[in-house]
Design goal:
2 strands; mainly alpha; 152 residues; Sufe protein. Chain: A
Length: 152
């Protein structure tokens, strides 16, 4: 099965949100994404997986199978849970390089950066940063394990 690329996923999200009449409906859709987010195992709710810079508690874990990155996340705040679900819908299941090559332009296109409180916008930036840090680490791990036979 050929998955849509990250840019296509971002464009589809923008299209879906732009079809809504107002921000009240958009917030409801963000919350719906959060409600559909798979539960995060208790074993991943650790200090190491907490995203720094978020006013609410956000956990973000990642796994790499040697080809693609799979992200898992949760938050104690329903809107923030929806925001992280949007990020996972776009970035999970792609290679580290694809993730690093696709900045989250949809955040500005949707107006999330201007319709969220400053704390939530800063938290969203922190979540994006953490997604990218994982992708960069997995890219480095893939490069080093290819040459040495060891992983991180």
């Amino acid at each position: 099965m050929d998955d849509a690329g990250i840019l296509q996923l971002q464009a589809a999200l923008v299209e879906r949100f732009e079809a809504l009449p107002d921000w009240e409906e958009r917030y409801k859709l963000i919350i719906a994404y959060g409600r559909n987010l798979a539960p995060l195992p208790e074993s991943d709710r650790t200090e190491v997986n907490k995203v720094r810079g978020c006013a609410s508690t956000v956990w973000l874990a990642a796994a790499f199978d040697g080809r693609v990155v799979t992200y898992h996340a949760d938050s104690d705040a329903i809107l923030v849970r929806g925001l992280i679900a949007l990020l996972l819908a776009v970035y999970s299941g792609h290679t580290p390089q694809e993730i690093l090559d696709a900045p989250p332009a949809f955040i500005e296109e949707l107006g999330l950066n201007t319709h969220l409180t400053t704390n939530r916008a800063n938290g969203l930036s922190a979540m994006v940063r953490q997604l990218m840090v994982y992708a960069l680490a997995f890219k480095a791990q893939a490069g080093s394990s290819a040459g040495t036979g060891t992983g991180a």
